[in-house]
Amino acid sequence: MDDAGSTVPRRQLGRYLRELREDAHVTVAAAAKALEWSPPRIWRYEGGQVPIHPNDAEAMCRLYGAPPETITTMRNLARETKSRGWYHAYDHAITEWFKLYVGLEAAASTIRKYEPNVIPGLLQSLEYMTEIITTGNPDLSQAQQQARIEVRSKRQKLLARVVPQAPDLDVVIGEAALRCPTKDRAAMARQLRHLAAVATQRHNVTVRVLPFAAGLPSRPEVGSFSILTFPKVSVRPPEPTTVYSDGPCGAVYLDKPTEIEVYDGIWSSLRQLCLTPLESTEFITRIAKEYDVDFLPA
Fold this sequence. Notes:
By secondary structure, the protein is an alpha/beta fold. It is built from 12 helices and 6 strands. The chain folds into 2 domains: 7-80, Orthogonal Bundle (434 Repressor (Amino-terminal Domain)); 87-293, Endonuclease, Chain A. It has a 6-stranded mixed sheet with strand order 3-2-1-4-5-6, with helices on both faces.
C-alpha cells in the first residue's frame, strides 16, 4: 500500500456495510444485538475508524442478507484494511481521528484548505511548526511533542511526491495568520518567506490571502476546514469528496452531497474575497519585511 495505508479501504468498506445495513432496514442497535457486539463497534466499522476482520465483515453481510458475491467482495476489501501507513509508527503521539485524516490526505488528488489564524501545517517552517506544537500542547511530553513535529514534517513530503502524483494544494490564509508572530519575530519572517517561496516554486501549490480589508466572509463563524477530493483507483469508484475540520477534542468528517455543497459555497465565497496568487505572494513578502524592521540597526 502507499502512504494512505488502510485508510481508503476502511472508509470504503465501512460505507458499503452501512449501505447494506440501511438497505436491509436494520438499525445499529438491532445489528449490535444480533451480532452480540456493542453499538460503538458497529459505528467504528462503518466510520472506517478501525480495521475489520474478514469474518466480521462476512457476519455483517449475512445479517443484512447480502448475496454471496457481495460477501466475497467485502471479505477481500476487509483484508486490505489491515495495511498500515507510515503514521502508525506514531500511535503514541497522534490520535485515531487524526490518523484517519493523514491517510485521507495522502490519498487525495486535491486539498482545499482554509486557515484563518495560523499557517497551514503543510506549509509551515520547522521553527514555526515547533512553536505551534509545543505551545499548543503543553501537557504532552517532550518526546510526544517531537513525534508530532516529525509527523507534520513527513506529511509535508507529499507535496513533492512523484508516485503517486502529488496532490494539488489550494490554500486560503487569513491575514491574521500572517500578522500573529511567533515569539521569535525573525523566525516569523523566515516562515513567511518560506510560505512565499513554496507558493511560487511548487506548481501544485496555490496560496491566496484573505485580507482584513476584504471584510467579513459570508460565513464568518466558520473556522478552519479542509476539502479533500480523491482520484479513481483501479475499478473502484473514487472516495466521496470529504470535508474535515478538527478541534482539541476531536474531528468532524462530512461527505454527504448536501454537506459538500454547503462547503463548496463557503469556499467559493472566500475565494472571491481573496487577493490573487501573485498579489498574495507580494502581500506575504511585504509583511515579512515588516518583521525585519525590528532587527535593523539603530
